[in-house]
Design goal:
By secondary structure, the protein is α/β, with parallel strands linked by helices. The longest helix is centred in the last third of the chain and has 21 residues, at 359-379. Helix content is 36%, strand content 15%. The strands form two sheets. An eleven-stranded mixed sheet has the order 1-3-2-4-6-5-12-13-11-9-10, sandwiched between helices. A two-stranded antiparallel ribbon has the order 7-8. The protein has helices at residues 2-5, 9-18, 23-35, 94-101, 144-152, 168-174, 208-218, 252-255, 262-277, 293-308, 326-337, 340-353, 359-379, 405-409, 416-421, 449-463, and strands at 42-45, 63-67, 105-110, 157-162, 177-180, 200-205, 221-222, 225-229, 247-251, 281-285, 385-389, 425-433, 436-443. Among the domains are: 2-244, Amidase signature (AS) enzymes, CATH 3.90.1300.10; 291-367, no CATH class.
Length: 476
């Protein structure tokens, strides 16, 4: 069993293709591990393997964990919220459907911050997720269940969503790879919406090759999502061993050292040194508005959340608290169904959109967003990618930031600018600080995923990080 669990998803697919591995056996091993979950990473696990595996399809029956934010036909799809507890949709999200068509089999649904609102996975209506490196600490959020499942070896790979860092940050805190694609390359149809202009689906995997493989079969236009334009290029599997000729930029406003934990900064600087050894040039670049990104994001995202979550009223689906009149039913259903963080963001967003405040808050935040996108576009004319830490710190203790929303939001400091601009970014593990994983973020221009994956792959090979908590991140 250990030898099978050591295989990456791509290696497992290749073994199935050769006839060296039975897909039913692979599914059974992972299903057993997921069912024995002690991290709170899973909200639903398949009872048994599908009757038939399409081993001729590219993903050859390799099991897939799916964040609870994706609708899956006949399977609980609850977005981490009690207001949708037990909801089983009559359809499947496009990107999940595409992966199943490509041969992936649904292993289970993973826990998350409620409606993807959080950086710690403590906001779930179904309990917190624990970090497999240290169970007293958070796994990051909002895709913390997916990240923890992959890091703990109860899933070979997983789907997550990223609105302001919800793939990259948990990937960093759990010592795995997380890719946020260019906005619009993956359909959002069937993703339970948080902030429609920001939400994007992406892979959480053990290595960069798996991320490329999963993303290859997720991307594509979709008639059911007007924002889904697909990718102009076929996504290839990365193979670069060196970075000769690659130009990397370090934004002084983001990665200048202030607010970054010393161990994280040290791992980041070692990664820059490695990039130079591999042939890259590293230079400082300026993004003058980037340090305002967090403020803009926490106006725009709650405003869109306020609009999107208005549909949860107890009338058509999900929780309904019976009452004598309609208004009381609305009020009591939302009171009981939504958690504190969701209520906080709905209130902030409603206020920002209200008469007399729209221009002062939402309008101004959108102008900042435009400036950030322009600044990033200008920088990408000079460099191939920019690099930062993924998170300013390693995984923090459960409950340590729950009472201070501002301290919690600062975990998104490095990831939010790329989300506002809609550009792709990947987080790879780059070492340990105090025995816990540190993430390196590499971001590029829109539709530059192939280049980003090559850069990340070369760095991954040079770093030699082993993402297994049991092996403590040791170089193989």
């Amino acid at each position: 069993m250990t030898a099978i669990l050591d295989l990456t998803a791509a290696q497992a697919a290749a073994a199935i293709e050769r006839g060296d591995l039975d897909p039913g056996e692979l599914f059974g091993i992972y299903r057993e591990r997921a069912a024995a979950d002690e991290l709170g990473a899973w909200t639903w696990v398949a009872d048994a393997a599908p009757v038939a595996f399409d081993v001729g399809a590219p993903l050859r029956g390799v099991p897939l964990a799916v964040k609870d934010l994706f609708c899956t036909e006949g399977v609980p799809s609850q977005a981490g919220s009690r207001i949708l507890e037990g909801y089983r949709p009559p359809y499947t999200a496009t990107c999940v459907e595409r992966l199943q068509t490509a041969g992936a089999t649904l292993l289970g649904k993973t826990n998350q911050d409620e409606f993807a609102m959080g950086s710690s996975n403590e906001n779930s209506g179904f309990g917190p997720v624990l970090n497999p490196w240290d169970r007293s600490r958070v796994p990051g959020g909002s895709s913390g269940g997916s990240a923890a499942a992959v890091a703990a070896g109860s899933a070979p790979w997983a789907l997550g969503t990223d609105t302001g860092g919800s793939i990259r940050q948990p990937a960093a805190l759990c010592g795995i790879v997380g890719l946020k694609p260019t906005y619009g390359t993956v359909s959002r149809f069937g993703m339970i919406a948080f902030a429609c202009s920001l939400d994007q689906a992406g892979p959480l995997t053990r290595d960069v090759t798996d991320a490329a493989l999963l993303y290859r079969h997720m991307a594509g236009a979709d008639a059911r999502d007007a924002t889904a334009v697909g990718h102009p290029d076929e996504i290839g599997l990365p193979s670069a061993e060196r970075l000769d000729g690659v130009r990397l930029g370090v934004p002084v406003e983001l990665a200048g050292g202030e607010g970054i934990e010393p161990g994280v900064l040290a791992a980041f600087e070692r990664s820059l040194a490695l990039a130079r050894e591999l042939g890259a040039t590293v230079e400082e670049v300026s993004l003058p508005t980037a340090d305002r990104a967090l403020s803009a994001y926490y106006v725009i995202a709650p405003a869109e959340c306020s609009s999107n979550l208005a549909r949860f009223d107890g009338v058509r689906y999900g929780l309904r608290v019976e009452a004598d009149d309609l208004l009381t039913m609305y009020t009591e259903t939302r009171h009981d169904g939504f958690g504190d963080e969701v209520k906080r963001r709905i209130l902030i967003g409603t206020y920002a959109l209200s008469s007399g405040y729209y221009d002062a808050y939402y309008g101004r935040a959108q102008r900042v967003r435009t400036l950030i996108a322009r600044e990033l576009a200008a920088v990408f004319e000079r460099v191939d990618a920019i690099v930062t830490p993924t998170s300013p710190g390693v995984a923090f203790e459960l409950g340590s930031k729950s009472a201070d929303p501002l301290a919690m939001y600062l975990n998104d400091f490095f990831t939010v600018p790329m989300s506002l601009a809609g550009v792709p970014a990947i987080s790879i593990p780059c070492g340990l600080a105090d025995g816990l994983p540190v993430g390196l973020q590499v971001a590029g221009a829109a539709f530059s995923e192939n280049r980003l994956l090559d850069i990340a792959y070369a760095l991954e090979q040079g770093l030699g990080f082993d993402g297994s908590p049991a092996r403590g991140g040791a170089t193989p």
